[in-house]
Write a structure and sequence with these properties.
- There is one protein chain.
- The protein has 611 residues and is of the alpha/beta class.
- The protein contains 22 helices and 22 strands.
- The strands form 4 sheets. An 8-stranded mixed sheet has the order 6-7-8-3-9-10-12-11, sandwiched between helices. It has a 6-stranded mixed sheet with strand order 18-19-20-15-21-22, with helices on both faces.
- A hairpin with a 2-residue loop joins strand 16 and strand 17.
- Helix 5 packs across helix 7, helix 16 runs parallel beside helix 18 and helix 17 crosses helix 18.
- The longest helix is centred in the C-terminal third of the chain and has 18 residues.
- The chain starts with 11 loop residues before the first strand and ends in a 26-residue tail after the last helix.
Length: 611
Amino acid sequence: MSTGTSTTTPALVVDNLKITGIPSMAAIIEELFLEVLPGEILGVVGESGSGKTTLGLALLNYCKAGTRVSGGSVSVAGQELAGLHWRAVRELRGQTVAYIPQSPASALNPALRIGTQLKECLPGTSGEALLRVREVLREVALPDDDAFLARFPHQLSGGQQQRVAIAMAFTTRPALIVMDEPTTGLDVSTQEHVLATVRSMCKTYDCAAVYISHDMAVVAELADRIAVMYSGRIVEIGSTAQVLANPSHPYTGRLLLAVPDLDAKRPMIGIPGHAPSPLARPQGCAFAPRCLLADDFCRACSPGSTDVGPRHTVRCFKADLPFPAVPSRAVTAHTTRPVEEKPVIHIGGLKAGYGTNTVLEGISLDVYPGDCVALLGESGSGKTTLSRCIAGLHHDFSGSLSLDGEPLAASSFKRSKEQRRRVQYIFQNPYESLNPRRTVEELILQPVTAVRGNVRNSREIVATALERASLRPDHAGRYPDQLSGGERQRVAIARALATEPGVLICDEITSALDVSVQSSLVDLLRTLQAEMGLTLLFITHNIALVRNIAQQVAVLERGRIVEFGQVEDVFANPQHNYTRSLIQATPNFQLPVRLHRPGVQGASVPAEGPR
């Protein structure tokens, strides 16, 4: 793929890279060309399974088990990675190329203190290394005192763990940093600071960066250039301004339509269908089965790269055609609650903590049937602790807690099977919540058999749960390590839905999902709310998403609810300074004019040949 010429020597050059699976020899990524200049940030976006993480790992000369590089080359700072001795590869990682993974828990050694881990890669004396460690901790808005350096990873919040992982990557000032969803666990105010830090450090030290993300709003704010991946190929690449203002590939346009709107003036519109498996990619254009513009020629022939502007290329036969109207789903207005209706969950004067450390105090909240209540707040504000108390996973609390008027025991082990079935929890990190030794089918059936015993229609239950979570049926026989991060999270969602719960506690469940699946999931949750009266407690850092799913919002600061009310009222006229600061720090993605056609229905597109 042509990326244009530049007088500056690129920090990263990827030339016709191909990575295949073993023993199937199916191409996971192929025909991949990239150049990233020093100080430049390239955002890589696309749905789960498109090959983003596989590409990121290849930039460190690493392939997952069962995959291998079968063609092309990767050069970092002028050094070709293929054929390096393992000692040279070890020296390269952390010094020349640094990696920030999606899961901070997998990046940090649970047996080592934070200070020890941050100093590991630094040369020089212990004193010099300590000075650099303190400096980089300040740059990611973390304490740099001895007490913090002496902590272990489990003593930090998820957001703090992620900032430590980011600090660890920047300590040696590498030539290239590969970031795989590094801000998914961060609240919006911390995310704003970290993104500003990443941008500043890349420019200051001439460090190139590849930023892999599902969050289009973050990429739009951070990246200089955007590469859109689909089914193992880059289908569009160009400057951020060009791609966002004038997307040329239909897939890029559909991704943008799925981004939630902070002002809630337009609906989120997902992409129907699934991205194809590497083992079953269609002939011709891989996006053709989901594209409203596709014709027989698209389905028969694979498009090559076409220049549509300076350093802006696209793989599409229809790049110069206007995007067709797409179907949008009307948002059902929330009806007025009857006066006599009782809350499904009642919390009164709840106080919770860990030992002598109080995390929550004075929490009173009523959640009514069919409602979605969002919990907002920075990392450490107590959102997850509150949700764990409701689920029976944290029993060190006082105050009243009831389900449909019946008191709930503090521990889930002391609750009835029916109470456990009715309240289901989806955890934030699918890398830790899924047993790596069980197949997806076994994972989904496990809670079903725990609350209902052996069931005869197990395959039907699994198939229904997978479909609800936008997963293909063939995922049932896979293990977690054979799935992408987004696919793992969808398995966790399918597992919770399999028991047909009445209350669903969603702890940052969309942080690992691409915008299209996120949009489909929002539609699913709305449908379940309408059809089953499903009640949702939705914990998220994504304020724009709250506008599209929740009816009420509770804002937590330092363990207390500082503002509560209807979503429209709170966002239109926030009363608390903390709420206003959260809204102000949230990136607001603006849809290109050519795509902004809310409320229109899908139109048929006449078949045409190639351009």
